[in-house]
Amino acid sequence: MVLKCQRCQGLFVPPKYNCPQCTGTDFDSVGVSGKGKVRTYTTIRVPPLGFESQVPYEIGVIELLEGINLTARLIVKGGEEPTIGGKVKFLRSEGGTHWFEYCG
Q1: I need a surface site. Which of 22, 24, 36, 68 has the fewest CB within 10 A?
Q2: Residues 66 and 49 in one domain
């Protein structure tokens, strides 16, 4: 789910209090495909405190088919290296973090 501004129809990922395009404050929740591509990514090898057991892991900027960009954790199976433009699909949101599976 994303937010859609009632004034300009712009889509964006919560939490937001104003539309980043027109500063409107009336939103509707709308569903999106959950599919997209990797715009950029990085592999975390030196983690912040509390994430030591998860390294290495990938964080990426995902562009959804609907044109929205968001930062998310990437699940990459089998030691595969993600590529810019590689396809992803939404898995879940947990504690404010969005998780996507890398599909290549």
Answers
A1: 22
A2: yes
